[in-house]
Amino acid sequence: MKRFLKRSWDYGLLILKGVMAAKSWLLAYIVFILIPASMLLYTYTQKSSQILVEEVTNSMLQTLKQASINLDYQFDSVRDTSNIIFMNPKLHQYLSSTATVGQQLDSLKELRYLVDNAQTNPNVFRVRLFVNGNRLYAGEKVNFFTLDTLKNRSWYKQVRDAGGTMLWTGAYLESYIDTESTYVFSGARILRDPDDYEQISGYLLIDVAEKTIEHILSKMKLTNEGHIYLAAPDGTIKSSNEKELLGTTLKSAEVLEALGQRDEGIVPLMKDENPRYVIYTNVHSTGWRLVAEVPKAEITSRVIALNQFSGVATLFGVTILFLLLVFILLAVIVRGMNRRIQMVIMTIKREGIDSLDDRIGSSDALLENSVDHLIHRVHDLMEETYRSKVQEREAQLRALQAQINPHFLYNTLDTINWIAIGRNAHDISQMIDGLAKYFRLSLNKGRDLVSISDELNLAKVYLEIQQTRFPKSFTFYFEIEEDLDRYEMPKLTLQPLVENALLHGIRKSKSKSGTIRIRAYRDGEDLVLSVTDDGIGMEQELASSLLTKPQPDLRSDGAGGSYGLYNVNERIKLFAGEAYGLDIHSKLGEGTTVSVRFKIK
């Protein structure tokens, strides 16, 4: 340990001496190259970042303007449809207050044709007419409604005061009897009675599904974390993905002032809790503003991406200057290095490596100390190789000894068995024979994998020995699927499960008796072995915890302290992967089932 600490200390001093030897060159590099280049790079980055922020935000504004043109096209298309219906002279005739019952029935067919024809426009979601309740078709509730159902709308008075001019409502949730509730915009206008112009004969609403507008906005690759919405010049939000904001007013006074005075612009909000840029443009067909709130961080990330090229170019220039300095340094010291290298080589050839230790141990030169470190490292590696060889030999001897011991054990048990037979002690003979089988199967000639049949036989022998120990206290039986013997599994997997079923399940029950069922079957590409007992059982929470941590208070001998289930679960995961292992299902007073699952091999 002391030698290791000394070597570490010497190596640290070696690095420090190397830095001190080059301190004049490092100081020159910092003063004449690194500091001026850093100042230049910082100034350039600040200026270029400001310009790039303006370029990025202006690019976003142009994208918004293109989107507003598309929105204008959609809204104007709906406006044209509304104008066609509004200008149809028959519409006013059908809505006339003097129409007879017969005329109303005839007009229903014509109105239906007019509405269906208008709804062929792909931008029109629904055409609705709100008329006086005395019309026969006013209660149809698909395209025709009574005026009373419209009067509770927040925008009803604005449409009435518009005097026939089409007015766009903001997005709102509308319920339809023939389809699910949908967020829509409505282009609304009043219809006057041709016989009495001062009398309002109805209202015409052209509905546009909000998802039609959202589809246009979603095509813009404008922002990942920002928010795009439609707002009136007074700041009222008309459309937004966040439905709880519909109808609310923007809180920023700067944004409200900008929306009310200019048709488009960029407003930086850097003093808010969430610094961001508000970019907006006018939607002429509605008079609204298309607004995008983009976080400052997102703009900054784009600026950083655009700055990468210039940063790389600057870094490349600094690197070239540094390399020139290095070349000059090399040209100055190359002769001295050659002389010292030749001296070290000649010393090694003349006196050998061992003699070099004393000569360069006290040297302050970087090269000599590096060679000294290399020599000590070679010595350490040679010692490690020698120790590895010795340990390998000892392991071989222990392996040979381990092969001898089982044979001695088998022969001894066989001798005891014949003595028991000779004295007619058949119960002792049976138990000795079972114990011999148990040792043979558990040792498995030193192999870690056993066949399925050997693992099942090991569990059977264990249970037979325990039946001798606890006569008439339990029964067991096997349910084995055919053609499983060609598969292998880790040895001593099933025995701890059987042991727990007997000692912790059956032997701890009031009757101290019960039944153990052992199953083995394939489940797709997996092999499943399960052990079920009808013993005392346990809470499912406790059963699950047995697989996550060792339980020092549950021993396999029934007297408290077992890691069996935990260890088996960890072994199966190492053998087959994290997806495999044990599964425990238990109910207090009814018994426990432990299943082990692993991939067929």
Automatic annotation (TrEMBL):
Pfam families: dCache_1 (PF02743), HATPase_c (PF02518), His_kinase (PF06580). It is found in: Cell membrane. GO terms for molecular function: ATP binding; phosphorelay sensor kinase activity. It is a multi-pass membrane protein. The keyword Cell membrane applies. It comes from the Bacteria. SUPFAM superfamilies: ATPase domain of HSP90 chaperone/DNA topoisomerase II/histidine kinase (SSF55874). One of its GO terms (cellular component) is plasma membrane. Keywords: ATP-binding, Cell membrane, Kinase, Membrane, Nucleotide-binding, Transferase, Transmembrane, Transmembrane helix, Two-component regulatory system. PANTHER family: SENSOR HISTIDINE KINASE YPDA. This is Histidine kinase. It comes from Paenibacillus baekrokdamisoli.
